[in-house]
Amino acid sequence: MKNVIVEKTFNFSVRIMALTKHLRDHEREFDLSRQLFKSATSVGANVNEAQSAASKRDFINKINIALKEANETKYWLELVKSSHIKTDNTIAELISEVSEIRNILTRIILSAKENMKT
Questions:
Q1: In this predicted structure, what is the pLDDT of residue 11?
Q2: pLDDT value at residue 2
């Protein structure tokens, strides 16, 4: 069975890896690149870890961490966009993608919390 959020966060991480490589190699932007890389890849790592959570609470906790990391990632992407370090459509696409991931994670959390009540 296909897991949409696992696939989306994995593919997002791959795209972020390409962006941060570009930022390091061509723009000589190391600090911002490192922060963006760490937060963005952590989203997928936490989503992946949640798939084998020990309990529903543990699952919700890991998805919450993924959501926090997605929020941080959006911040770093907005910073790259506002600083005009990279000006093509890549940044706008990644901001849109992380926003979609945030929406999905929020829905997952709400649904999991609702399922805990029943």
A1: 98
A2: 86
Structure tokens at 91: 């940044």
Average pLDDT over residues 27-47: 96
Domains and CATH numbers, the chain: 4-112 (1.20.1440.60)
The string of DSSP codes covering 61-99 is HHHHHHHHHHHHHHHHHHHHHHHTSS-SHHHHHHHHHHH
End-to-end CA distance of the chain: 25
Residue type, 42: S
Encoded amino acid at 70, one letter = A
CA 21 – CA 103 distance, rounded (Å): 27
Predicted TM-score (pTM) of the model is 0.93
Nearest to 70 by CA among 24, 93, 38: 38
Residue 83: both structure tokens together: 């600083």
Q: Does 118 have pLDDT greater than 80?
A: no
